[in-house]
From TrEMBL:
<keyword id="KW-0812">Transmembrane</keyword>
<feature type="transmembrane region" description="Helical">
    <location>
        <begin position="102"/>
        <end position="124"/>
    </location>
</feature>
<feature type="transmembrane region" description="Helical">
    <location>
        <begin position="34"/>
        <end position="52"/>
    </location>
</feature>
<protein>
    <recommendedName>
        <fullName>Transmembrane protein</fullName>
    </recommendedName>
</protein>
<keyword id="KW-1133">Transmembrane helix</keyword>
<feature type="transmembrane region" description="Helical">
    <location>
        <begin position="73"/>
        <end position="96"/>
    </location>
</feature>
<dbReference type="InterPro" id="IPR047730">
    <property type="entry name" value="ABZJ_00895-like"/>
</dbReference>
<keyword id="KW-0472">Membrane</keyword>
<feature type="transmembrane region" description="Helical">
    <location>
        <begin position="7"/>
        <end position="28"/>
    </location>
</feature>
Amino acid sequence: MTLRGLLWRFAAAYMVLLVVVALALNLAGASSSTSGNVAALLGAVMWVCMDFGKKNGRYFTSEEKKRAIAGMLVIDMAMQAVLTVSVGLSSGAPALSLGPMSMVLLFIGVLHALVIWAFVGIAGKQYAAAEAKRNRNG
């Protein structure tokens, strides 16, 4: 699998998970979807990273890891920007205020960058452990 393929899969998985989690939370009567958004992000990151390792028979090189994290963050922030603008417009605001919206996106970006970075690393450790176990068991 190429890095481009990984990022396309991440975008598709993340979008589907965001919709599924939002629907599930709405049906459950939850008023906030922040934890659901993070859960969708974690699921998408872990799945595509583990799949990359499985399909390539190895995990990321150092350069691939940096590019994968940056690519996932760009995709995540694009989706978050769309969600932020949608929420702003649906709340009846006559015009979007760029300052507060930028601050919200910056805050979300920092948190999500840390989450993506951490879980790309965790997925790598899980992949290595699974490979070691598979090699021990033959």
